[in-house]
Design a protein that fits this description.
Number of domains: 2
Low-confidence stretches: none
Number of strands: 13
CATH architecture of the largest domain: Alpha-Beta Barrel
Mean pLDDT: 96
CATH topology of the largest domain: TIM Barrel
Structural class: alpha/beta
Helix content: 40-55%
Shape: globular
Radius of gyration: 21 Å
Strand order of the largest sheet: 2-7-8-9-10-11-12
């Protein structure tokens, strides 16, 4: 086969078509982003120069600008102008300091409280949703059905200004990706991850078992809001739309709940992407084994985040058997354990295993999820990772 452009290679891999060689696209590289001052264009260009198959993700607003949703990439979250926000410090009865936040809306007041720890990264501010606050929460924001009416005032659709700015960015992204011949991706979609941020992981686990009708109503509210945001991103257009679902594996929900509450909405999202000529990607790096048939039923084009080390219930041979005729698999090597801490022999063996088990067709190689430890060993192992990929591809 003639040499493909990086974009065509990625598209053909996701569509399970013949390719010239296995593509390698890093899911996320926080080290490189930090070195390049969160400039996503420079990150994509640098990875392209490294010989990788990068994706340019839009909207590209850096984490530092997403003060109310650091872990939710994509369009801004907008509240109604009627929402009044207050934040303050207090001392909890256990003697430890708390940070509190109140959202006053026309439909009621929502409050949250977190235990203030030395490693709290946001100063006197509590984001609306964020991974950091979940394990520190003394009181989650959403606890009962009565909270949902007030929540509606924090789930506004994208504003005209947001849409205009996105379309301007999309024009620049389209020109660059066509110039370099690289993949243009967009998102993030969100469902159960948002519910976990709002309710807290442990609380939500109990709620899915004890009050599934309440969780279903919350997920429907999130779903409607997510679809409004999704339609804007799909208008770019993008080659691949990505839905984040780190909290949708069997570590967090039962297969029964997934089938009843998550699968129908996931299928709707995938259908919307396909109606717009866009491939649909789904990030879940743990707890996937009981859900594999659901992924096929939903119409997911690529499962992103196959982690053979940190991902529980990750069975790469079974994944290839179950999904190989329908869904591309993206990942194959642990970033945190193998690439950031492994020996040369371990890195090479992991790349070999991933390529042999998951490739060659319907596979994109990547460290999973993210490279974050900026040390010489990581740099060395990234070079080894790429060198072994070049030998295996």
């Amino acid at each position: 086969m003639a040499k493909l452009t990086s974009r065509d290679r990625m598209l053909r891999a996701i569509r399970l078509q013949d390719i010239d060689h296995i593509p390698c696209c890093f899911m996320s590289n926080a080290i490189l982003r930090k070195r390049l001052h969160e400039n996503w264009v420079d990150v994509a260009k640098t990875e392209y120069q490294m010989g990788l198959d990068p994706m340019l993700f839009i909207p590209s607003a850096p984490r530092s600008s997403r003060t109310d949703h650091p872990d939710l990439r994509g369009l801004p979250i907008r509240f109604s102008p009627e929402v009044k926000v207050k934040e303050w410090h207090s001392i909890h009865p256990d003697g430890h300091e708390s940070l509190c936040k109140e959202y006053e809306t026309p439909a009621g007041v929502l409050t949250t409280e977190i235990r203030l720890t030395e490693d709290w990264p946001y100063g006197d501010h509590i984001p609306f949703v964020d991974d950091y606050q979940v394990p520190r929460a003394r009181k989650p924001l959403i606890e009962a059905p009565d909270d949902l009416a007030a929540l509606s005032y924090m789930f506004l659709p994208p504003s005209e200004q947001d849409i205009h700015q996105f379309r301007q960015e999309a024009q620049v992204a389209r020109a660059l990706t066509e110039e370099l011949g690289i993949l243009r991706a967009g998102g993030w979609g969100v469902g159960m991850d948002m519910a976990n941020w709002l309710c807290g992981v442990q609380n939500l686990m109990f709620l899915t078992l004890e009050r599934p009708e309440f969780v279903n109503a919350l997920l429907e509210k999130i779903h409607i809001w997510n679809m409004q945001r999704m339609e804007v991103v799909l208008s770019a257009p993008v080659d691949l739309y990505i839905h984040r679902a780190w909290y949708e594996g069997c570590d967090f929900v039962t297969p029964h709940f997934f089938r009843q509450a998550i699968l129908p909405r996931l299928k709707t999202d995938a259908d919307l992407a396909h109606e717009n000529g866009t491939l649909f990607g789904y990030i879940c790096s743990s707890g996937t084994k009981p859900m594999l048939e659901f992924y096929k039923e939903a119409g997911i084009d690529v499962l992103i985040g196959v982690d053979p080390v940190q991902g529980t219930h990750t069975d790469m041979p079974l994944m290839k058997i179950k999904l190989g005729d329908r869904t591309c698999l993206w990942g194959g090597v642990s970033a945190a354990v193998t690439v950031e801490r492994g020996t040369e022999a371990e890195v090479r063996a992991a790349v070999q295993q991933a390529c042999q088990v998951l490739g060659p067709q319907g596979f994109v190689l990547s460290p999973v999820d993210n490279l974050t430890v900026d040390e010489p060993l990581t740099d060395k192992n990234v070079r080894i990772f790429i060198d072994e990929w070049l030998k295996q591809r």
